Amino acid sequence: MTSLRTRLLFGAVIFISTALLIAAFVLTALFERHVTDWIDRELEGHLDRLIANVERASDGTLTVKGAPDDSRFETPLSGLYWQVMFADGKIERSRSLWDVVLDLPPEASRNAQSHHHAISGPHGQTLYLIQKKVEMPQRLGRSEVLFAVALDKAQVNSAVWRFAGALAPFLIALGVLLLAATWLQVGLGLKPLSSIRLRVEQIRSGFAKRLGSDFPSEVRPLAQEIDTLLDGRERQLVLAKARAGDLAHGLKTPLQVIVGGIGKLKAAGETAIATDLEYATHLMQRHVDRQLIRARMVTDGSAVQANVGDVAARVVRVLEKATRQRELSWSIDVPSNLCARIHPDDLSEALGALAENAGRHATSAVVISATRKGQVAFVTIYDDGPGIPEKRFEEMLQRGRRLDNSPDGTGLGLSIAADIAEACGGVLARNSERMGMFGVTLQLAIK
């Protein structure tokens, strides 16, 4: 239930199901009431015709001449019955009762409205009964006669159940349509949130700078708050970049002074002290350069791309001159059209750091290779040196750890490459050996 869509749809299912059940109950109750009213009118009509058909027989007793006109009164156990009880105890009944006499409830009032009862009928039937006690007119001796008309209650129930059965498919179809409409409505309602997610991805990827304001009024305040947050973050990053730049440039002048002092020490014959100071100065210079690189990467949010082959060629041209005395073999195996989503300067810095490490430890050869798999470019620098143990490689990737502690290294090359890869949404990984050569791979997104 962590999904808004699931919550809304689950709530809609509960609400629609409850509403349809209530509708089914109410409609069935209304239909039953309608059927009951219709039966009441029908039975009242039969009752009135019975009362109107009472006449005096030739022997002076009262009798019913002419039963109500309904064939069910003539069909045995049809479910529709009438019975008349005269004051002298004489009982007349419909042929449909066959040999059964209804046990009518006592009726105290006379000439009043008819009364409804539920009584037992033939073979255990439950009858819906209407009866009325009537005082006959003067010409019929003003005797009291009890009239009753009854219908099998099962027929009423059967009609109600048939109606409910016919209503059920309609309600189910209505429920399906309502759920489909709800699904569509929820999708349309949540679409602005999907748009925000896509635009945030574009901002993270560097293809957009702000969300904008073209959202529904309910979502627009959220987008505005996010844009305001991005504005504040951009101002903070610009300020941080300026401070890092000021700090780095402020350190460069003292470093130049130290470099000059190192030269004087060497000229004075203090070679050991000069060598130590030179190493420390070189290390400080790399730290300064690293902070400048990190500051530039953090603030550069534009959509950029770099041709991997071109950058690799520039890096190799520089390093070939630096390692010429060692006679290393440098080779490039990169598709000409392979581009990665990274600034060319950042890719040059990362490849330069990795290739410089490879050149320092290689015995005779360094290879820069690149392949594409899906939307990821795998750029690998191989060398035939001793390699890096897997445990030490993982240790190096942890914040604050260093791998290279040799006197001729700064311990920052792989760390800088890892920082650049992370800033660009990529990964620096240890690669498996290739023909006896150790490799380190930059995994970068393709534009």
Brief characterization of the structure:
With 447 residues, the protein is an alpha+beta fold. It is 52% helix and 19% strand.
Task: Provide an overview of this structure.
This protein has 447 residues and is of the alpha+beta class. It folds into 3 domains: 156 residues, Beta-Lactamase, CATH 3.30.450; 97 residues; 140 residues, Heat Shock Protein 90, CATH 3.30.565.10. It has a 5-stranded antiparallel sheet with strand order 4-3-7-6-5. A 5-stranded mixed sheet has the order 9-11-12-14-13. The radius of gyration is 50 Å and the shape is rod-shaped. The two termini are 36 Å apart.
Between the first and last Cα atoms, what is the distance in angstroms?
36 Å
N-to-C SSE string, H for helix and E for strand: HEEEEEEEHHHEHEEHEEHHEE
Number of helices: 8
Counting helices, strands and paired strands, the structural category is: alpha+beta
Overall tally of structural domains: 3
Helix content: 40-55%
Low-pLDDT ranges:
399-403, 405-410
CATH topology of the largest domain: Beta-Lactamase
Tell me about the largest β-sheet. Answer: 5 strands, antiparallel
**Order of strands in the sheet with the most strands?**
4-3-7-6-5
Count of distinct strands: 14
> Based on the structure given, which CATH architecture of the largest domain is correct?
2-Layer Sandwich
Proportion in β-strands: 15-25%
How confident overall, as mean pLDDT? Answer: 83
